[in-house]
Amino acid sequence: NRLIIMVLKKGDVFVFLVGLVHFKCNVGYGNVVAIVAFSSQNLGVVTIANTAFGSNPAIVTDMLAKAFQAEKKIVKQLQNTF
C-alpha cells in the first residue's frame, strides 16, 4: 500500500509490476496519448480498498473523490479507517 508518483515525459515508458493497483492523472495542460497492454494470464486478487484508501503517503483526497465519484468527506473517512 505504497504510493509511487512518477511524472512521464514524451517518449517515456513505465511498466507496472504484476498485482500493482495503478492510476494515471494528466497534470499538464495538453492532451495525452497512452498505449496500454495487458499481459497477465493469472490476475490474482488485489484489494482496492486497502490500496486506494490506505496508501502511504496518502493519495490526494480530491483525486480519490473524483475516481470513486464520492464526496471528499466520505473519502477522508475511508482514509482514516485504513
TrEMBL record:
Subcellular location: Secreted, Extracellular space, Apoplast
Pfam family, one: Cupin_1
Binding site residues for Mn(2+): 22
Superkingdom of the organism of origin: Eukaryota
Residue ranges annotated for the Cupin type-1 domain, each copy included: 2-75
Any Gene Ontology CC annotation: apoplast
Sample GO molecular function, one term: manganese ion binding
Keywords: Apoplast, Glycoprotein, Manganese, Metal-binding, Secreted, Signal
InterPro entries: Cupin_1, Germin, RmlC-like_jellyroll, RmlC_Cupin_sf
Family designation: Belongs to the germin family.
Full protein name: Germin-like protein
Source species of the chain: Citrus sinensis
